């Protein structure tokens, strides 16, 4: 009873205060000094900015990333509609957009400051090797849907752009130190350098050791992930469109995971594999005003090396140049065009007979051109965007990737848009060139041999083509005062998916040697080619609701379904089934951000993720809690608890390297950030 | 039963969370504060007499989508340095060029370069909260730091357009670029 009285008293106090604020003398009469001292309830600029874009775009601001308590990029993406993020193990993630999850989600392009971190070896991102200093990230843009007309091949289901802050915005120093409940530390430091009239620079270094997973019975797993990354960024103090920046980075990470081996003749078990990742890059960019518009030229070199235990190693060297020009608006037209060239040298050295590559070395080239015209059909009301990217890749062939987008803005607060886009996903080096011994399966009892080896290899007559997507989208966005609502429906039609077919010639004798009589196992080949097709459709809902000036709610819900074309071929049928079961059918999240004043803040996230596959990963619910305290103007402290009410759950079973299922326990971490 | 017991501290915590903002006083809306800043910039910047004759109205304009949600209406009709403030929303550079202070909305981020070039040499004070606005050659950039609205000033475009920022404005700016030529 006493509690209830207290509560109602407090509620009326809160309401009273808000009412008083509403009717008070306007802020307009305050002086500059007074204004600079006011605490602000940050309202996302998303709504205003994005109501102009005929695409499903979510921009995570630095503040939202900080408040999410994320300590890695995948964690920050967790509550974006249409995006699924599942932890596979220590530092290992499956991140998917619109249902192409997996450890290597091959239809999602990820870039840091315009530099692609999508690996052409396996068509995907090695999230476990990517340790970004989130304190210096300005924003993360998540573009769902086919972005290929602007971003190029592999931006099939989405693009994630990680944009770091300009060095001119990170003057001064920063030290961030954290520790989790397993005692694993994270330490990062950044120092800004004032270059006077020339501009500004910063150098940073980060080291981290990530928490281990649990096994199904709750014991600590032996997976691990640790390493460092460091780099610099220089930005010129240019004015107008004139700007330049130079940046570089280097990293080294070691990650261990346990692979479940398939059995032959009684051998089965867990094999630890140690991965080693190493890489560096150097990048330059120049922007200038040109012909009344704006031009930018960016170039980078990137080196990546991965060592997979004693099984093999791969190297990727990339040189990329990209030019863009946005012309001044000419009547109803706003034209933009660009050219790109990329050279990639890959080398995979396989040490065991499990994996073979032919050729082991590849030199691939991509040449592309894009053009886009934004046409105002009726000022402020109807806008048509027509564009396309024309890309030639030596790994497939000429791929036109067009888009048409129409937007109707009947009022300041509503926008409706629809689009059709076509996108291509280039075959990876692995898909194109690898011969992989998948394993052995037991032969029928009457057969004169005990097992059959399954080998996956490219179809000998394969005329390599990129996978193709036709995407249709329909979106609605509405501003409700300070709140905003977004709904996007999509329909995707995938063709020429790279799947596998059984070798029609059946078993090949004598096949492979094995250590038991009769000392050979015939082999069955699975041929890869552009055999598959699938369709998916879904709906994404997002709500951003600043309830009061100190409480903001964000909700998202996604429902979707994927259907692969069925086939009489068992291998292709199994491939189709695997696409259908890579992501949950629905997932939702609710986030509350509370500013409690005096530098105290609370963040609460509730998530419900549907089952994946035929319940190989059951549905789960998690609650994450974060408490942040601005101890002083220069020092922030935060405490986070993940999976508050849930001692153990499984988020994903790795589809690439069939790892031991890694369960996620309740976790806690403490982090302090000093700025000076 | 066990779950019920567990909920009590949670409820207490919720009450606590609701209570804290009441004690601290609710913070103000971001764009209300930004609107107040616009008026103050008009107070502390001096336009050339030819551009803003005595007694003429001082026009504050928003280029692009208006993010202020009505907060600018409170500026309409106020007196600043003997000028009456007029607020309007504009859609193109021609209209914006007639204004004295132009707030460039976030919706125009991609066109920021051409806009700044188009408004150069027209004695227009450009203000925006687009990230990197001042670095890109804008006049005054509003930034959020430590949950407060602050501003950066780029003296370059102000001096070019013969706009004189008062020393008080320069003193309160978080960062002042091109200051050495400004004679602080």
From TrEMBL, chain A:
The lineage of its organism: Bacteria, Pseudomonadati, Pseudomonadota, Betaproteobacteria, Rhodocyclales. PROSITE patterns: PROKAR_LIPOPROTEIN, TONB_DEPENDENT_REC_3. SUPFAM superfamilies: Porins (SSF56935). InterPro entries: Beta-barrel_TonB (IPR000531), Beta-barrel_TonB_sf (IPR036942), Plug_dom (IPR012910), Plug_dom_sf (IPR037066), TonB-dep_rcpt-like (IPR039426). Residues 1-22 form the signal peptide. The keyword Electron transport does not apply. Residues 50-159 form the TonB-dependent receptor plug domain. GO terms for cellular component: cell outer membrane. Residues 214-644 form the TonB-dependent receptor-like beta-barrel domain. It is a multi-pass membrane protein. It is found in: Cell outer membrane. One of its GO terms (biological process) is siderophore transmembrane transport. This is TonB-dependent receptor. Keywords: Cell outer membrane, Membrane, Receptor, Signal, TonB box, Transmembrane, Transmembrane beta strand, Transport. It comes from Zoogloea dura. GO terms for molecular function: siderophore uptake transmembrane transporter activity. Belongs to the TonB-dependent receptor family. The keyword Iron does not apply.
UniProtKB/TrEMBL annotation, chain B:
The keyword Signal applies. InterPro entries: YfiR/HmsC-like (IPR025293). Residues 1-24 form the signal peptide. The keyword Signal applies. Keywords: Signal. This is YfiR family protein.
């Amino acid at each position: 009873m006493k509690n209830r009285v207290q509560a109602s008293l407090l509620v009326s106090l809160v309401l009273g205060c808000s009412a008083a604020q509403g009717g008070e003398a306007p802020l307009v009469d305050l002086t500059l000094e007074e204004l600079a001292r006011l605490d602000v309830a940050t309202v996302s600029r998303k709504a205003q900015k994005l109501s102009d874009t005929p695409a499903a775009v979510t921009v995570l601001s630095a503040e939202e990333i900080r408040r999410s308590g994320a300590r890695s990029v995948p964690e920050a993406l967790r509550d974006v509609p249409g995006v699924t993020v599942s932890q596979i193990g220590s530092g290992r993630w499956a991140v998917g957009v619109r249902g192409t999850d997996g450890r290597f989600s091959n239809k999602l392009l990820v870039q840091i400051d315009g530099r692609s971190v999508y690996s052409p070896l396996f068509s995907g991102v090695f999230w476990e090797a990517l340790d970004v200093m989130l304190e210096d990230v300005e924003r993360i843009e998540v573009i769902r849907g086919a972005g290929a007309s602007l971003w190029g091949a592999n931006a099939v289901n989405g693009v994630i752009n990680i944009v770091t802050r300009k060095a001119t915005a990170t003057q001064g120093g920063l030290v961030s130190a954290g520790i989790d409940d397993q005692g694993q530390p994270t330490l990062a430091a950044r120092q800004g350098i004032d270059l006077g009239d020339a501009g500004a620079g910063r150098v940073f270094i980060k080291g981290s050791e990530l928490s281990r997973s649990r096994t199904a019975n709750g014991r600590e797993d032996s997976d691990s992930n640790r390493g460092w990354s460091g780099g610099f960024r220089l930005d010129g103090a240019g004015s107008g469109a004139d700007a330049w920046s130079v940046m570089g980075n280097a990293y080294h990470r070691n990650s261990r995971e346990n692979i479940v081996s398939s059995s032959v003749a009684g051998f089965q078990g867990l094999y630890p594999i140690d991965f080693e990742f190493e890489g560096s890059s150097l990048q330059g960019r120049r922007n200038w005003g040109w012909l009344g518009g704006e031009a930018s030229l960016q170039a980078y070199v990137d080196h990546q090396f991965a060592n997979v235990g004693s099984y093999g190693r791969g190297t990727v060297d990339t040189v990329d140049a990209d030019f863009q020009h946005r012309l001044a608006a000419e009547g109803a037209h706003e034209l933009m065009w660009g050219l790109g060239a990329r050279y990639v040298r890959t080398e995979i050295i396989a040490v065991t007979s499990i994996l073979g590559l032919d050729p082991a070395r590849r030199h691939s080239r991509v040449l592309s051109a894009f053009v886009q015209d934004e046409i105002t059909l009726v000022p402020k009301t109807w806008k048509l965007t027509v564009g396309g990217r024309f890309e030639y890749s030596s790994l497939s062939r000429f791929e036109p990737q067009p888009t048409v987008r129409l937007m109707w803005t009947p009022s300041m607060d509503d926008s409706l848009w629809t689009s059709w886009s076509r996108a291509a996903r280039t075959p990876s080096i692995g898909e194109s060139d690898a011969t992989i011994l998948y394993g052995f399966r037991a032969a029928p009892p009457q057969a004169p041999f005990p097992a059959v080896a399954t080998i996956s290899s490219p179809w000998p007559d394969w005329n390599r083509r990129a996978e193709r997507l036709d995407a249709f989208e329909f979106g609605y966005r509405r501003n409700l005062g300070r709140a905003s609502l977004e709904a996007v429906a999509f329909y995707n039609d995938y063709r020429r998916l790279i799947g596998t077919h059984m070798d029609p010639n059946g078993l090949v004798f004598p096949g492979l040697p094995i250590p038991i009589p009769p000392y050979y196992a015939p082999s069955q080949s699975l041929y890869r080619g552009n055999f598959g097709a699938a369709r998916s459709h879904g709906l994404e809902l997002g709500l951003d609701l600043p309830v009061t000036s100190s409480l903001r709610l964000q909700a998202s819900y996604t429902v979707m379904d994927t259907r692969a074309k069925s086939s009489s071929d068992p291998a292709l049928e199994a491939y189709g089934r695997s696409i259908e079961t890579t992501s949950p059918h629905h997932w939702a999240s609710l986030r509350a951000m509370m500013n409690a004043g005096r530098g105290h803040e609370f963040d609460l996230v509730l998530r419900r993720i549907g089952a994946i596959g035929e319940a190989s990963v059951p549905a789960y619910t998690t609650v994450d809690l974060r408490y942040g305290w601005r101890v002083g103007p220069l020092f922030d402290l935060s405490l986070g608890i993940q999976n508050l009410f849930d001692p153990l759950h499984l988020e994903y079973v790795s589809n690439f390297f069939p790892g031991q299922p890694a369960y996620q326990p309740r976790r806690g971490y403490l982090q302090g950030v000093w700025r000076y | 039963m066990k779950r019920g017991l567990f909920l009590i501290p949670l409820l207490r915590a919720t009450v606590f969370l609701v209570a804290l903002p009441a004690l601290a006083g609710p913070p103000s809306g971001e764009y209300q504060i930004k609107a107040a800043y616009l008026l103050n910039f008009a107070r502390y910047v001096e336009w050339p007499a030819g551009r803003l004759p005595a007694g003429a109205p001082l026009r504050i304009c928003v280029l692009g989508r208006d993010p202020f949600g009505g907060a600018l209406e409170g500026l309409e009709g106020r007196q600043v340095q003997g000028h009456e403030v007029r607020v309007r929303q504009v859609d193109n550079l021609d209209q914006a060029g007639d204004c004295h202070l132009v707030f460039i909305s976030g919706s125009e981020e991609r066109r920021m370069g051409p806009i700044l070039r188009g408004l150069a040499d027209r004695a227009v004070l450009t203000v925006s909260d687009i990230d990197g606005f001042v670095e890109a050659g804008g006049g005054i950039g509003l930034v959020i730091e430590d949950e407060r609205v602050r501003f950066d000033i780029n003296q370059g475009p102000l001096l070019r357009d013969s706009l004189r920022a008062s020393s008080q404005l320069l003193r309160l700016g978080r960062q002042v670029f091109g200051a050495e030529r400004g004679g602080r």
